[in-house]
């Protein structure tokens, strides 16, 4: 079980880093679904990892990060539908 939880943690960190790198290098936009999905997946993987480790402050911040990404995706989708 530890192997899987550690793997989730590494995958989550990788999702966050890759999405941020692609945003900064202008390969992705902050309104793209790829950017939001990468952040949501990163948050889910890191929440699983930090729950397993009972690191509740990290659970909290990653859950908030994921919720913000979901909110951002909904706002961006609404803007695209209104155009």
Automatic annotation (TrEMBL):
The keyword Transmembrane helix applies. The chain crosses the membrane at residues 6-23, 58-75. The lineage of its organism: Bacteria, Pseudomonadati, Bacteroidota, Cytophagia, Cytophagales. It holds the Pfam family CBU_0592. It comes from the Bacteria. Signal peptide: none annotated. The keyword Zinc-finger does not apply. This is CBU-0592-like domain-containing protein. Residues 6-74 form the CBU-0592-like domain. Keywords: Membrane, Transmembrane, Transmembrane helix.
């Amino acid at each position: 079980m530890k192997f899987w939880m550690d793997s989730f943690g590494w995958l989550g960190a990788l999702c966050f880093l890759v999405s941020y790198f692609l945003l900064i290098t202008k390969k992705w936009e902050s309104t793209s679904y790829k950017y939001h999905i990468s952040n949501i997946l990163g948050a889910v993987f890191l929440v699983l990892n930090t729950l397993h480790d009972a690191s509740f402050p990290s659970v909290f911040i990653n859950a908030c990060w994921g919720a913000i990404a979901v909110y951002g995706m909904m706002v961006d989708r609404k803007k695209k539908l209104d155009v």
